[in-house]
Structure formats: structure tokens, C-alpha cells
Amino acid sequence: MTGDHYFSPQPQADHRYQRFQEELRGREFTFITDEGVFSKKRVDPGTRLLIESIAVPEEGSFLDLGCGYGPIGIVLGSLAPQAVIHMVDVNSRAVELARRNLGENGITNARVYWGQGLEPVQDRTFNLIACNPPYRAGRQVVLSLLEEAYRALAPGGQLYIVGRTRQGVKTLAGLLREMFGNCREVAKQGGYRVYVVEKDAL
Length: 202
Fold this sequence. Notes:
Blueprint lengths: L17 E7 L2 E7 L11 H9 L7 E5 L5 H9 L4 E6 L2 H13 L5 E5 L11 E6 L7 H13 L1 E12 L4 H12 L3 E6 L2 E7 L4
Parallel strand pairs: 3-4, 3-6, 4-5, 6-7
Antiparallel strand pairs: 1-2, 7-9, 8-9
């Protein structure tokens, strides 16, 4: 054991690359993964439900926050070729994999950044943000991250999150509703729920 978490900036685990294919939103994608990243053997059920539940605009600026090896951002880039996709993760190994996976899937309208939270894209606003938050990092970390994300939304922009019911995502949704005035459930399946928060248009 190295003590690595998927939110460790510099995982120390020995490399053990894997490659697999997934069908998402009716399209086939290829992913390369490694030790020290989240859900290395398959796209996890929560991320899958999130991907399937997002109402994707045709264009705009999108953010995959905590992108891991890239499935959310890659699918968004495939579905919305006129959009610009930004992908951020604190895990340097995940960032390297996400960049490789963009190439594997022929996605040219996305960029991947290494850094904490929204720091690498702090000068930008987004029409859509999607996030499978790092619940193991603790509720306060998650709330701070989502508050930061909400501030980065353009007027009328939407923030999508997913989580397990047993991890307290319903409670989190209630807190987001108190903080931002709205938060609605858009999907639930297999113990996971997807919520969306919308920023008031000016």
C-alpha cells in the first residue's frame, strides 16, 4: 500500500496500464487507465449515469471538474463538437491519461489541466460544469469545490453532480439548494442520484 488516493497529486503506485472500451450515449469510446486513478477497470456507475443524464448544449464552454482519465469530458467533446471542453484534475497521472485518451478518441476540442479545484481555469466562466465529487475527501472539501464551481458558471449555466444515496448525496443536494436557491434531481439508478443546479440568468 502506498497511501495513494485518486485525489493524490502525485500517485506513487507502480504503473499498470489497462485499456477497455465503453459504450456511452450510444457511442463507442476507448480508455487507457493506470494504477492510482479512480475506477481504473471501467467507467464507474455514477459517472456513467451522470454522462447519460446531462442535457448537453450544442456549443459553449464546458468544464469536466475532477476529470480523472477523462470519460465525461471526452463524451461531452464528442457530443458537442462546436463546444470547448476544459478538463481539470489534481491527480497528475489522471491528467496524463486524460490527454492520451483525448487522442485515442479523436477529440480535438478539449484541453486538460493539472491543478487543484478550478485554479487552472480560474479566469474562465462555463455554460456547463459536470462533476463526480471526491466524497472521500470529506463533505467540507466537496462543498467548497461545488461553491467554487457555481461561482464559475455563466448566467444560465448548469452544474451537474452525481453521488451515492448512501454517501449522503441527498443531504448534499439540500445544502446546495440552500446555498444557491435551486437543485433538482434529474436521474437515479442503482443507488446513485444526479442533480443539477442552475445559475440565474441576468
